[in-house]
Amino acid sequence: MRFNATVAVVAVACALSACGTGTSTGGDGPLAGQAAEVVGTWSGEEQARFEKVLAAFGEKTGAKITYTPAGDELPTVVQTRVSGGTPPSVALVAQPGFAAQLAKSGAIKPVASEVEQAVSEHYAPIWKTLGSVDGELYGVYFKAANKSTVWYSPKAFEDAAVPAAVPGTWDEFLAAGRALADAGKPAVSIAGADGWTLTDWFENVYLRTAGAENYDRLAKHEIPWTDPSVRVALEELAKLFGNQQLIEGGSSGALQTEFPKSVTNVFGDPGKAAMVFEGDFVSGVISSSTDAVVGEDAAFFPFPSVKGSEPGVVVGGDMAVQFKDDEVTKQLMAFLASPESGSVWAAEGGYLSANKSITSDTYPDDVTRELAGQIVDAGDNVRFDLSDLAPAAFGGTKGAGMWKDLQDFLADPTKLDETVQRLEADAAKAYAP
């Protein structure tokens, strides 16, 4: 999930009124004269690349497909559209918890049998499970993200004479950060203005300190956020958040830094920090916003082990769900489940898929191939972004719930008791039947 402040007002107003900003013109084909609208979070370069996917569908079928960007406000936009009786044909939803709410309310439709068959053929079983509600498949994961990567500037490490450029443990990561700070370079640029990045920090630490079983239980709110396992993860995270020398601009500066800026803080000229934690989509910002070359000036390593934990991968993804049951919508969903659709964006860069039928040589570089391979090779041994599994009111709403509580924790990591109490209060309210 990413948020582009420059288009926020236009995107939200447009989505609420059901107008589109990008259109595949359609043409001859079996669906000529038919139309559908897709709502998603993407804007800018991501929107342009997704529109190429929709254009490929339009050229194949003759259908006219309109794309409307909604940014981080997508849950609000979709709910408003549904309530107003003007739902889109398809939405790309980043929160399975929100998709489950839509399914249980009857707002979205189960996928057609041919779509389910495509998912079974091209995806590991975990992705079918994640797209299902009460055993029925409602969604197709079109785009995936590897959210367990730390991106760094090799030059910054060399200039600081840091001996290990690839920290394997959390203690080594913090030690490298202190060495970088001592050499005059803040270790990490944190995008604290975008609360979703802080949930990713927490989830990676929690998976490694609490284990997969507790991760699953917390995601379902089967254990409270006041559980000792949550405190342990926050205590580890406070070792970073509480050291102002390790953070570019300190906590106050981080809380004013949006995600794209956190990346250019590391890979722009001059670089202001040595590392930035986030998903594979960091590479797209590097390529589009800096002169750094991914694989040369920019590299990544897996999120480090904490307290001797086994390797783990936190993933995210954008799931296509359908609000309409007409032929053009069904065929569009089947297309999005196919390797053909994902290959269009994969060739452009800035994209990963859990679709195992997309060949590795489709991706444009070795770094992206490695990132995509980690997701596919992990099979069912992945854990989905916990905040996206939660109800949107807790895990996916700007300025509220988990996003806001972790922003407050970044501002003052000493307030651990207050943080877990607020997290539990917000979660209990959001998970209440």
UniProtKB/TrEMBL annotation:
It comes from the Bacteria. It comes from Saccharothrix longispora. Keywords: Signal, Transport. Residues 1-20 form the signal peptide. Pfam families: SBP_bac_8. This is Alpha-glucoside transport system substrate-binding protein. Belongs to the bacterial solute-binding protein 1 family.
